[in-house]
Every structure is written in C-alpha cells, then in structure tokens.
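Quick one: structure for this chain?
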Amino acid sequence: MPGKLSHKLTTCKLLIDNEWQEARAQQFTDVTNPSTGEVIAKVPHCQADDVNRAVQAAQQAFPDWSQTPVVDRARVMFKFKSLLESHGEELARTVSREHGKTLAESRASVNRGIEVVEFACGIPSLMTGESIDNLARSVDCETVRHPLGVCAGITPFNFPAMVPLWMYPIAITCGNTFVLKPSEHVPLSSLLVCELLIQAGLPAGVFNLVHGSKGCVDALLTHPLVKAVSFVGSTTVARYIYTTAAAAGKRVQAAGGAKNHLIIMPDANIEQTVEALKASAFGCAGERCMAGSLAVPVGQAAEQLLSKLIDSASNMKVGRTDIDGSPDMGPLITHEHLERVKKLIGQGEQEGAQLALDGRQKRVAEAPHGFFLGPTIFDQAKPGMSIVEEEIFGPVLTVVRVNTLQEAIALGANSQYGNGASIFTESGQAARLFKHSFNAGMIGINIGVPAPLAWFPFTGWNNSFFGDLHIQGKEAILFYTQQKMTMTRWFGAAKAESAPFNDPVWKSRV
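Got it. Here's what it folds into:
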C-alpha cells in the first residue's frame, strides 16, 4: 500500500477518486530523514493538470456527499477516529522519521489531531440553524447551513499529521469535498492517513491528495472550482495565499508566523517557569508557530531565571528520533533550514546580543549527518534586533529585560505578529492586566504554549493571520459552510384584514 510505512525509498503518489495515481510531473523533491540526512522518499511537483484531476474528482463527488445526511457523514468520522487510534503509533513513528520530532512529541501531535476528529463527530449538533415563527404576522423565518463545495488545504512541514487534521475532518463532515497539499518535506504521514480514510468508508473523490510546491499551490489558489482555502505556514506565504485566493473570489483562512512573548514576573514560580520556557522554546526544536521564542523577564525576575534556565537547557539531550530512545530534542527539518537558523544566530551576535548558550556546535556521534542544533539562548537583546523582531523557527530563545509589566506589554504592542503570549505570575491583578492588554490572540497564564484544544479557534492576530474566520472550533464550521435564509408565508383562511400583505410595508415586499 502506498500509505504503508516502509523503510524503502518511496515515490509518493496522488490519491484521486480513492485510487493511487502517478503524477504527471517532471520535477521531484527529496524527502530526508532529518536525524540521518538519508533520502527516504521522492515527492512529485504536481502542476495544473494533476491538480485539475483532483479538483474535478472532488467536484464530481460533492453533490452526493453534500446530500448525505450529516449524521452519516459523522459516522464516517467516528470510524476514522477509531482507525487513527489503532494506527496512532505507526503514524507517530512516521512523523518522527520524516520530520524529526521526538516520539513523545509525535504521539502528542497525533493525539491533538484526533481531538479535532472528535470535534467533527459532534458536528450534527453544531450545524443546526435558527428559526422564528411569526416574525411578522403569518411569516416564519429560518436559517440553515450549507456546504461550500471543493475546499483545499495547504499545510506546513512542522506538524505533518496534526495540522492537516485541523482542516479536512471539519470540512468533510460539514458536507464539503477536499484536496490536501501537504508540505513536500513531509508527505509520508498523509499517505498513511489517506489509507485510513479509505478504510473508514469515505466515498471516492471526497478526499484527494496532491503534492508539490508553488506551481501546485498556485493551481489550487486559482482553480475556479475551489471555493475555500485553508493554510498554515510562514507569514510571507500566508499573505500571498490570502491575497491570491481572495482575489480569485475564494474564502481564505491563512495562519502565518509568530514571535510569541513569555512574560516572567518577579513573583513567578521559577522552577515551574523554567520547565515551561524550556518546553515552549525548545520543544519540537522550536519549529512551531506557538513556540515561546522571546522571554521578557520583569525586574528582578531576570536574575532569578537566567542562570537556572541556561543550566537546565544546557543539559537537554539532543539526539536521533527515528530510533527508539528518549532525547529531549530532535533535529531541524532540513540542512538548508539548519543553516538559516545558524545564520540568524550569527546575526544576533553581530547586533550585540549576549550569546549565553550556543547550540551551534552540537554533535550527535551516532548521526554525524543529521541536522542537529542545540538549545540556544540570547540575553540582553534589544528591540529592533533581528532576533527580537523576526521569527527564527528554531531552538533559539531571546531574552529582553524590562523593568515593568507595562514595558512588556508595550514591547508586544510593537510586534508585527500576534499569535500567542503567556505570563508567569502569582498575581491575579497582573494576569488580568496582561490578559486584557497584550497584543496577541491566544493568551496563557502560567502556560508555556497557549495553543487551544479542538473546541476553540486558533485565534492569531495581526500578521499571524489573514482572513476572518479562524481554524478549529465553531469558527471552522462557519468557515466551511454558508447560511441560507428562508422566509415563509402561507395563504390560508385568515381574514383579509389581518393578513400581513395588507400592511403597506409588506405590500412592498410581495
């Protein structure tokens, strides 16, 4: 099976109409195991003709699937959830092999994706409309939600299983059909998930898979049959996705990058804060848009925090994640990305920040060709420096010291991003001020990564999100459906003088 986990070199196929098909591609990208640098798969760069085949299959499946009772659509999701759970370990190991997450991180990401499927299973109770009888005399009014048609998902490398699961379970259960374009760096998880969707009984054409890079993306963004596009990735690409797809008349939700601030007050529990900062900044090797990459200790908190944080981070075990073991952190996704992060570290030194912990010399003896970088911490950074303003997307924590909470809030107000921010404190007054004032859409109080569970939306602000309706939660249902309002009046035996059409206002509406 194309989706079966294999240690042989895989040439990724397309899924169209529940059949594995070869791409009509001339260009391919190597997929590497980040722990070893070994090439493990090749991904075709689909162009417009491959994308059109997938979209046409989705369009042909849409009429019947949209008319399938929502309860029956949810039952397919129940089966899919069960299959994900039974194959969860295999899927997690696939994520670790192609991405470099530790196995614990991969398992957690798969479980978070399954939670979205659980949410989708409850969509029958969330698709209900509204109605009022006798809104005017003998006039009733109601709204119902209808699916849009063919929807597309374009997903990043950092969560190969979880982020796609944010999208298509909700879209499909709402009655849409779907075309997924995963990152060309991590296609293997999606191949496996496709097999599970087929086993769950999803009809042919409801879910389709294509591969590639910009040519494939542009074909999806401009295809006239695609009604909505969901995206997660960098801010530069998110802005491009939004402007291109919106100009083509499509609904768009495009989640971008971030520079998430972690505020540490002098009264914070330092031991617990150190553990939270380590997990936030260095978990998943810092390759997540909710990573806490900017620590902002207030007043005396800096002296209490820094020595313990540096000591704890320096003792983190960095190692291979494609074999059994328990490293604290794995490699970065590609050699090119590793070199980019190293370059930004060097730039931070040149700008005058103090490099308190340098991870650039990290070596893993049993994997000399892996893409490893140790935890890195800058201290005494200042606003305006690239390491303060830019998303690094690696295991780099930058510390900016301030004197007051108001200064910390002002620092956030000047950020171009607005995904998440957290405060560590025992003061309810400080937490309340921070919660109401900080310039971000997701707020944590004594929580390192304030990423919402499936029942709440992923509410990035500013250049961290382009669109109106966010990913996950009830907003996702609104995004993947459109309302239809029906106003009804029946003529009966009522006396003419009491009929609403004798009202001059209603006469104008007949």
